[in-house]
């Protein structure tokens, strides 16, 4: 590739002159790359904005529902370290794993949400196997090895993803924010076993770690940490009060459905909203056992008194200011009459919180994606925009010039492909060195991103984003181009002036 001291990039363009094929080196000044970026393009995206997958008018929404953990209550990263350390110690003390595991600490930013973990083959990857795969913290599996592992394909058939312990697929997808320490612990244990030459059964290892993580939640250890130091663990408390109070002032009804216990929720809400937080809600349901709450009709509602103790009377109505435990959505709909698109429910888990509500019950849904704020700030950097623009330019050149197969042209194409791959890796690494963005695997949306589009009408970094919009605001999704619609992508802007070879011959094809 042609380079000069005054340029940051250079490329070679192949073109046809009569019957003679020429290879001419053109200098592509870095200043031209900057000119391709419109002014202000690096600050276009607002991290506090709400993004729409479907058109939705808040003016039509009469009832707002909320999950608690990572929806109303956002937690600091310190919580993940505590979960990791406690589960690691459970493995050592109760499951008799090697004491050497105690040297492993939580690695912030190692894993991302949406990864698939193959219980049988011990790998952690974004669907569908594009890019590199980490199967432990220190061992990187090359792409060719992974493709060979899955029978020579990047695509996994559905039959390989069926039943595991009767609860889910053999390819486990980690969709919960709480799963970040679990993925890191899985990687750490596997790394220790491989490093020390210890044989292990992948299925047993996965089950043990899953049980250790579950114990941290089920036995209430995590709740005690948070209750002991609300200031250190809970974020954005004042903003949550502002959101809820604003909705109530505009005559909206509010309800809470969470899997967390009442005492924990009560202390957290008092910290964020105040001692009279229950006055803002028309319904409060704790220990709901989602997603079963949305699909199973069997569990009846139980009432709790102000101290959180169970009452024994049959529930024939859901009263404002009262606390209810368990229950099911079918009784909830029957007793409240809150159906259809007048209800908007917010949650952080695409499956447990949102999928059934949208697909089976017709509610509007809002996904809370805390990672969105960080990713948008990265997208807004000049480094990202320049890398993306150059990558698109190279892609366009490769597509248009690949028919030239003489020796010199092939060498140029190989150089372009090499540079394109380097830029793709650089762009991915801006988000996460191991797995990239939670929304995109190179040019493809991730499986997480596809589920986000399918199960949420709107998505945002936190509930506080609602403060930036009027209560009657209408969200309109942008028209995203399909591949056959020839959008004005940057690679076409960069290379659109080039004549397509054999265009005259192609005109006669019908």
From TrEMBL:
Q: Which GO terms describe its molecular function?
A: 5'-nucleotidase activity; metal ion binding
Write down a Pfam family by its short name: 5_nucleotid
Q: Which prosthetic group or cofactor does it need?
A: Mg(2+)
Q: Keywords in UniProt for this one? A: Hydrolase, Magnesium, Membrane, Metal-binding, Transmembrane, Transmembrane helix
Q: Which domain of life is it from?
A: Eukaryota
Which family is this protein grouped under?
A: Belongs to the 5'(3')-deoxyribonucleotidase family.
- Quick one: which residues bind Mg(2+)? 67, 348
In Swiss-Prot or TrEMBL terms, this protein is called: 5'-nucleotidase domain containing 2
**Organism, per UniProt?**
Anser brachyrhynchus (Pink-footed goose)
Cite the NCBIfam families for this sequence. Answer: HAD-IG-Ncltidse (TIGR02244)
């Amino acid at each position: 590739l042609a380079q000069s001291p005054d340029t940051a990039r250079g490329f070679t363009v192949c073109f046809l002159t009569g019957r003679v094929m020429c290879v001419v080196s053109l200098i592509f000044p870095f200043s031209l790359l900057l000119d391709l970026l419109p002014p202000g393009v690096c600050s276009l995206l607002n991290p506090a904005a709400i993004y729409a997958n479907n058109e939705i008018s808040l003016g039509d929404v009469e009832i707002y529902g909320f999950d608690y953990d990572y929806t109303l209550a956002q937690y600091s990263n310190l919580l993940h370290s505590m979960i990791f350390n406690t589960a690691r110690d459970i493995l050592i003390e109760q499951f008799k794993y090697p004491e050497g595991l105690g040297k492993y600490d939580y690695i912030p930013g190692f894993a991302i949400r949406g990864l698939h973990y193959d219980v049988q083959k011990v790998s952690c990857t974004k669907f569908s196997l594009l890019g590199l795969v980490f199967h432990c913290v220190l061992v990187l599996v090359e792409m060719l090895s992974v493709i060979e592992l899955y029978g020579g394909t990047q695509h996994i058939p559905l039959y390989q993803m069926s039943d595991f312990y009767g609860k889910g697929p053999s390819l486990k997808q980690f969709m919960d924010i709480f799963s970040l320490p679990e993925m890191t612990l899985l990687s750490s244990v596997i790394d220790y076993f491989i490093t020390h030459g210890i044989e292990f059964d992948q299925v047993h290892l996965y089950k043990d770690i899953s049980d250790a993580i579950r114990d941290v939640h089920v036995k209430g250890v995590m709740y005690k940490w948070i209750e002991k130091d609300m200031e250190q663990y809970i974020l954005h408390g004042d903003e949550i009060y502002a959101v809820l109070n604003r909705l109530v002032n505009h005559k909206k009804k509010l309800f809470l459905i969470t899997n967390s216990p009442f005492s924990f929720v009560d202390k957290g809400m008092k910290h964020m909203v105040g001692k009279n937080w229950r006055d803002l809600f028309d319904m409060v349901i704790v220990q709901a056992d989602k997603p079963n709450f949305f699909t199973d009709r069997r569990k009846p509602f139980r009432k709790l008194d102000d101290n959180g103790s169970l009452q024994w009377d049959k529930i024939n109505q859901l009263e404002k200011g009262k606390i209810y435990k368990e229950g099911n959505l079918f009784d909830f709909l029957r007793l409240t009459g809150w159906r259809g698109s007048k209800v908007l429910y917010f949650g952080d888990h695409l499956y447990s919180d949102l999928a059934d509500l949208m697909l089976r019950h017709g509610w509007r849904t809002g996904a809370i994606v805390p990672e969105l704020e960080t990713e948008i700030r990265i997208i807004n950097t000049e480094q990202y925009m320049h890398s993306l623009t150059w990558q698109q330019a190279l892609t366009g050149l490769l597509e248009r010039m690949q028919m030239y197969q003489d020796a010199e042209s092939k060498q140029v194409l190989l150089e372009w492909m090499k540079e394109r791959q380097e830029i793709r890796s650089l762009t991915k690494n801006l988000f996460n060195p191991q797995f990239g963005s939670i929304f995109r695997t190179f040019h493809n949306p991730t499986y997480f991103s596809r589920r986000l589009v399918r199960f949420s009408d709107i998505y945002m970094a936190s509930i506080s984003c609602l403060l930036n919009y009027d209560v009657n605001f209408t969200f309109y999704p942008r028209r995203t181009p399909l591949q056959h619609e020839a959008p004005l992508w940057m690679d076409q802007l960069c290379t659109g002036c080039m004549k397509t070879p054999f265009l005259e011959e192609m005109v006669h094809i019908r």
